[in-house]
Design goal:
Length: 398
């Protein structure tokens, strides 16, 4: 079996590369399958079309979110440099998705299917959404890591091209195209601006960066095309009073309740979730009737007049499907610690109930300023994370 010899191209070697055209040669390749496990079959198919010489194809592996390891096909500092756009690892959040792909371009003989050279590379792409806009960006970066094989045109004269491609409900508003040497020592970066038209109340949109390799010395001058795509995202126009925007709705958003910001409010939620094991994952509702019923059931029915000091705070929130109207009963919270310290929610018209009785809703009388601030922060969270009717989210006290 032939084992290619790795080398770093010298200045004289790279000077022999073909002149880099400003625009990709035409026709452009179509998206096709990656290299099969048996290159002899692909070589035989090309030979059957009367072709002979050298051909190529791409194999790639996409890293999973959270995987910061460097694959066998991308070694050393160059691979890490290519991944820097992603902070070193593939990630996805409610507003951003970073994709890292490790690939290898194989150059093989026709009709024999023998590999004579290869280029190992890393592609990274950061897509950033806007919760207040139907426009998003995708930054794309190519870095060759190693090249192997003899210093001949089918290896040295290889170029890489990339361009944006809309995949669902989008247009390209502006873009920087990529075109140039695919060898180590050269990096290529571009940023594309996509946008999606207003399309009803909620819809999905998707874009990507399509790339391929080119060499005039190959029997087919372009390799099979590949495409770097983030996850499909959702855009909506259903948050009344706010502009339309987009998020990765496959990611569960987390609402952090800050203990230092509103101590009583945070204490109520922390005890409800952590001590009484009430649900921390809730489902938002935008049904005004249900929200009113939740509030009536929790903070209006059976509440003494005059109301005890403080402001009535309910959990689960009235803006969720798990609110008081859907619960069989309510509870207040009273905690007496071993050292004699206690915490009381002061809703004396409701029973305390046992900690292992995790059903129902809870009521706590807290300072009005904290209740208003907590509600304001929840509304801002709904907007910035685009949590719409039917979306689940997690409540976390920190």
């Amino acid at each position: 079996m032939f084992v290619p010899t790795s080398f770093a191209p010298t200045a004289s070697a790279t000077a022999t590369a073909a002149t880099e055209p400003d625009q990709p040669p035409t026709p452009k390749p179509t998206l096709t399958k990656e290299c099969g496990t048996d290159l002899t079959q692909e070589a035989a198919a090309l030979a059957g079309d009367g072709k002979t010489g050298n051909a190529t194809c791409i194999r790639k592996q996409t890293r999973k979110p959270g995987d910061a390891k460097t694959s066998k096909s991308s070694k050393g500092a160059d691979a890490r440099l290519a991944a820097d756009i992603c902070g070193g690892q593939a990630t996805i959040s409610r507003s951003a998705n970073c994709v890292i792909e490790d690939g290898i371009l194989l150059i093989f003989t026709v009709p024999n299917g023998v590999v004579i050279g290869s280029i190992q590379y890393t592609v990274s792409s950061l897509t950033t959404l806007d919760y207040a806009s139907l426009r998003w960006t995708q930054s794309w970066h190519y870095q060759a890591n190693t090249v192997a094989g003899p210093a001949i045109p089918p290896v040295l004269d290889t170029l890489v091209y990339a361009e944006p491609q809309c995949l669902a409900n989008c247009t390209v508003s502006s873009s920087g195209l990529v075109g140039g040497s695919a060898l180590p020592g050269r990096t290529h970066s571009a940023t594309t601006y996509f946008q999606t038209p207003l399309s009803g109340s909620s819809w999905q949109a998707h874009g990507g960066i399509r790339y391929w390799f080119y060499n005039a010395a190959w029997v087919n001058t372009s390799s099979n095309a590949s495409i770097t795509t983030p996850a499909v995202h959702r855009c909506d126009n259903v948050l009344t009073g706010y502009p339309s925007g987009c998020v990765y709705n496959s990611v569960l958003p987390v609402h952090d309740v800050l203990s230092y910001r509103y101590p009583m409010y945070a204490r109520h939620l922390s005890l409800a979730i952590n001590h009484y094991k009430m649900k921390s994952i809730l489902t938002r509702t935008q049904d005004e009737n249900l929200m009113n019923r939740n509030y009536e059931r929790s903070c209006r029915e059976n509440v003494p007049n005059p109301m005890p000091a403080g402001s009535c705070d309910e959990y689960p929130f009235k803006s969720t499907r798990e609110g008081a109207y859907s619960q069989p009963y309510g509870r207040t919270i009273f905690i007496l610690n071993i050292n004699g310290n206690s915490f009381s929610c002061g809703a004396t018209w409701l029973p305390v109930r046992a900690p292992n009785d995790s059903g129902g809703y809870s009521i706590c009388m807290i300072p009005l300023s904290e209740n208003l601030l907590g509600g304001s922060d929840l509304g801002a969270f709904y907007y910035k994370s685009r949590v719409i009717d039917g979306d689940q989210f997690q409540v976390r006290v920190v």
